[in-house]
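Journal club prep, notes for RB
We'll compare a predicted complex against what the paper describes. Inputs for the glutamic acid case:
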Amino acid sequence: MFDQTTYYFRQAAEIMGIGKRIQRLLENPQRVVKVEIVIERDSGELATFTGFRVQHNNARGPFKGGLRYHPTVNEDHSTALAALMTWKAAIVDVPYGGAKGGINCDPRDLSPGELERITRKFTSEISDVIGPNRDIPAPDVNTNSQIMAWIMNEYSRLNGFSPAVVTGKPVELHGSPGRDEATGLGVAFCIREWLKREDAEIKDRTYAIQGFGNVGNFLAHHLSIRGGRVVAVSDVFGAILNPNGLDVEAVRAWVSEHGKLEGYPDAEAIPRDDLLYVECDVMVPAALGGVFTKENVHRVKATLIVEAANAPTTPEADKMFQDAGVRVLPDVLANAGGIIVSYFEWVQNIQQFRWDLDDIRSRLDNFMSRAAKTVFDLAEKKEIPVRTAAYIVAIGRVGKATVLSGI
Ligand code: GLU
């Protein structure tokens, strides 16, 4: 996976002609931490897991990025995703570097008590390398505000009151209003900015969303309240389709009551992976990486792909989309709403002053619109893919900071 993100990086670096020296400074992670997490299960048995924190680059500010709890978490994945965070933070111009990490566990097999023990153990194992001015974790796949609260509490127990050590906390515990919806809302703003260039609005398009977790759920909401027709959504168990448009609020209510889409009455149930091939204008992968590969690109009917997930498109698939005239709005831009509002949360923690939701939404809109404009303008001017333009903006900013700081 790291080879894939490196591929995109090198492609842009070559066009820019930044030279081997800077390329070498920007490519590899600065630190890789791997820890063994041993806990006692509720049954009294011992269980061990492996935790990672990869810090890719901090030329522009403290490392920043999520923690995911998933069986696929390993060093390669964490490194790839950490690099994406470096570029993402630079593209939307928040003052951070990039990091990522997590634990190779499946939270569905863990009781709340076990999840808390794993989280506290992991936090104490990495407490020397994180901190409000050092590295600030956040939620990612299968992690949530409760887990962030435990991280804050454990870190503060060791280091004194430190709410700014982690973002995505509960609003009742130094979290920010609007952080939960931020990635989904940011994706909606990014789509709106792109559609402006097609003289269209959100309401003029149909959408399919793969994944109905934190990102997909809020994205569906923000598209549908703007008149967008969401025709299909999926989760880990299955997918539902209604070509006339789903009643998104009813679907959200169903999922919050039943925990999954399965059984939702006003739609056709379709096999989970068929979601990617449904008839729609805009396809949004909002779950895990590696969704579009050279094996399945030809089956995709949408003409716009919006990467709400991190790394959903392999480089071969990306090239095939380009050749077929399918536009891709890349992860490093499209899903940056999360890190943007994480930045707002961190600033509020440091200022010890709470902003309100309207303020946060309009600032998120400003950050996302500005970044999208910069990237889309460059892509248009140089006639290059949006992803390449996004990497050029990012590499330019991180490279500049690196050179200014000195080696
Ligand atoms: N996990 C999110 C991402 O991949 C958010 C990271 C953050 O808020 O630091 O962008």
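Talking point for the session: The first helix runs from residue 2 to 16.
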